[in-house]
Amino acid sequence: MLASRTMPAPSDGPGRGRRHLLHVAIGFPPAAKSSTYRLRETANQMCAAGWDVTVVTIARESWELESGIDPSLLDGVDPRVRIVELPLRRADLETDIRRFPEARAADPVGWVKKWRARNQESFPEPVFGGWRPALERAVLALHRARPVDLTLVTCTPYVTLSAAWTLWQQHRVPYAVDFRDGWSVDVVRSRTAFGPDSPEGRWERKVLDEALSLWVVNDPIAEHYRTRYPHLADRVTVVRNGYDADSTPDVTGRGAAKAPLTFGYLGMLSSTAGEWRALLDAWRLARSTEPLLADARFEVRGHSGFGADRGGGPKVELLRRYEDAGVHFGGPVHKAEVAGVYARWDALVLLVLGGRYMTSGKVYEYAAAGLPIVSAHAVDHDASRVLAGHPLWTGACGLDRDGLAAAFAHAARLAVASGPAERLAAQAHARRYARSALLAAGARDLTARMDRTPLLAGGHTP
Amino acid sequence: MTDILLIAAQRPGLAVLTDAVGALKERGATVRLAAAFDLDEDRAALERTGCDALHQLPRGFHGRSSVVRREAERRGPGEQLWLRAAHDRAFRALAREARLLVALDADAVYTVWRLARRHRAAGAVHGLAPAVQAMRTGAAASGAGRLRRTLPSPALLAGDLRRAVRRLPGTLVRAATVRRIMRHPAGARAWRTAVALPGLPARWRAPLARSAAEGMTWAGRPGGAALTLLGAARRTAAPELRAALLRESAFADLPTGRPPRALDEAVTAWLGLADRRLADGDRVEAATALHHALPLAFHRSVHIDQLTSPLAEDPAAYTRRLRDCRTFQAVTGTARGRAQQAAPPPADRPVRLLVLTNGNANFLGLVLRHYADRPDVELRFLDVAEHKELARLARSHWRIIADRLDARTWYREHTEKHLRPYLDWADTVFVDWCTGPVAMLTTIDPGTTRIVVRLHSYEAFTQWPLLADFSRVDELLFVAAHVRDLCTAYVPQLAGPSAPRMRLMHNAADLSSFERPKSPDARFTLGLVGLVQIAKDPLWALDVLDRVRAHDERYRLLLVGDPMSPLTSGAARNYRAALEERLAPLERAGAVERRGQTDDVPAALTDIGVILSSSVREGCHLAVLEGAASGAVPVVRDWPFAAGGVNGARTVYPEEWVVPDPDAAAERILRLTSDVDRWQAAGAAAAKHALSTWDWSVVWKDFDAALLRGGQLS
């Protein structure tokens, strides 16, 4: 099972005396997921902190069904990192009808519903719960092949918790959880996702109780966990996402923008069709009222839809209906091309879900792009905290059409008035969010926690 | 050039479709769209997407048989689309040409899945992006020759399949069941042989047989499909799988129009399975097994759509294996009785009468009009077919059986909920037709409400009387004694202590309106009114016509009513073809005239001097009553279904009306129409008998007694 695609460690590793980190990171490059940058940087920084890192993810072909793959992402992986790809695949996203049993062909929606219910019999997670046995077998096999000193699982999917738990239960391998957006907090609806006595609640409590450390991406989520589990408060660590330096454009020589302006959105099209409609209506209004925007263009780039709907779906249809207002949907962008895309744009549009518990990874990259930013999200949103003080930010006003139209006009005026100085100042504001620094701090903290746990560190259970 | 067939149940998003079609055509594809939605509403916009052709799939089941319609009702939208599309010859041709089949939405997936099984070389994907990717990776661009290259030839299959089949990988075996091979007699025969090989592993036999049978059905060989499944079943030891294959064989045989060859074995297998499961204490599965056995034993292809019926010939012998089955005994022996007797009719207020039927009120018009005008009756009419929940409960065959076995209580609770208000209101419930609603109604205690059920003739050849709990029925009305005899011979409760009171009751018919003067040619005009069912056997009438025309070519036959639809069943199709073949020269010669369906039967009868009943099976042939009342001379075939018994046509009508065969019929006609006076006298006598026996002015008193006076004659 593990032999499906294993990138062997280079000849200079694993180094004698280096501890072995098992990083269960489903979504690791080359998956073109929004989380992939964090996962890559985590592996790189743990490597830099002295660990031999083995990453466990799923077969790259599986990502073809979901967000696609971006082979250029592998270029940034520390060559010492060993990647193990498990032959796991999301059956619900399968599009090859020849693979369907008749029951699924007859009722695709009903079949997926039952499949989700079956998955939850293994682990309380509808889409990924069924992966639990394979994950557990895989990590146990890897531990047998080379004993693991620390497991770091990253969620989603939450079923990776079971892998850490199994190694802990059977071999007392300590583990940490990179919870990112958390589990028991619903970051989209800004509320508790489930109660403590639910299957999810019992799993979360059980796993976190024994975890060496718990990483989350922002302070409100950290606060949620410190409140929910006071006894874990000192283990909760905020490790923000940050941006990658190679994704930021060089703005040193870039002067004021000239009409026709180009606004851009880059990221998954994860907001609802209703939110997109509100944004596009505001854009249309702004174009009709702000002379600077009269012939402006709004480019939307990113992944849309999964499985049979990938590359399409109602949101893409919606975007195409606004072509007369200068809206253009151009599909996803490879990581290596991101800086170039930002360099062509004059202003950015940040449409993100959720509220105070949500940050989004994209906001850091936007902040570091040195461009005016229109915020289309709740006022009380963690992205607002990241952008507060950014010199080219127009502020957040929710999805109010008039407010957003004014923000577009404001951004347009900022774009034509900003020279290199303003852009560099904006980038300087974002510099504290450089991903490498944030994750390096996280890696150091985790390593230090291991060092402070002498009874566990290096103590393998046969 | 790669042909790509897009299939859409719903209107797709046009922008995304346009992009994808552009991308596919850039790679050299020809893109066709088959749509189940109304193409005309969006034709112009869809043409702008760049599709090379748009094909409208059938949007309904117009012109399809009732079997298909009923099947469709049980299926989800995806399977319904397939049932419609598979009938579309042009669509099938498009699918054959396609190298890539693309479902654009979830409801189109099943159609693509089914097509993919027949067209092994074609790619099959769900969604436009996967289609573009398939083109990009070359998965769909393999060219038309691929099919021929990957399939074994029919000669190979026919020659040495016995050995070859063991070696063939599964995919290749499936590929070898495509229509092109199955159309070839040698290919089909080879498959029948292969699936019945003694040494074939059980895990292969059933899938192979099913795959081959599907291919044969697809290739228009339903008989071959049935034989294939039957052969496999006979080699299958596992009882469940064997029973399932036998059942599939029986259903595969239906389009041939003859009683399925596997039927007896299938019924026996399912009954055995039912008893085994009952013995294991698994009442739910026992109910399921009986639920499969009963519809087979009483399938219309055996009893309704044929000119003979093993049930009619010897009901005791035919149902012996049923009555020997313990599960059947438990179900049909369920006689829960009622907590209270039916209350006597109220003296201080009108009787509340609920008349209930299930989509067929053909024989109720007069009854409803009669009681609607009566001050001593408060009438309500309930057509179960119009009541969504009750309609569902009335056809819940499995749930009724499970209820009788106490395997489930859901059915009882729901019936209580939906039917109790009607029972609480009514003093008497009169259920016309002893079918599903009676089984439903008798699931619950009727309280003090009197339950009266009328059984015509058709129901006697269905399973429904077996599922009624007659201990909760106060009175069972039969339209004829021979129908009663048949039912009491095989429905255990009707021969036991819980049997309700049984009474003969003539159909309600207003015969006075049929007394009209005959036209001058009527004496030489034989009439057959109603021929929509095979049981009416109009070919027998043609035999009679041939014989009388041999004496005098002035005799002609008037057919009133539409003939049976060839879409009803395979048997109907066969019978209709034979009928048309006989009718064609007779019509050209002016010996037969077709009048088609009419609402004015009295007017049609003015041209008819001799009314025929050519049927093999009747309860009381209403057309004969009406014809006799009109003054036509009745000539009634001794209905073969009842001819061997104590009662039959000879006890329904005066004996002299009834004839054993076409020769006797011709003799009676020639004798009574030989001169005007004799014909008129015979017609007058028939009219007098009809009006004095069957007219509503006589019969209504019996209805009053049964429905208003607790069964007591005044």
Automatic annotation (TrEMBL), chain B:
SUPFAM superfamilies: UDP-Glycosyltransferase/glycogen phosphorylase. It holds the Pfam family Glyco_trans_1_4. This is D-inositol 3-phosphate glycosyltransferase. It comes from Streptomyces polyasparticus. The lineage of its organism: Bacteria, Bacillati, Actinomycetota, Actinomycetes, Kitasatosporales.
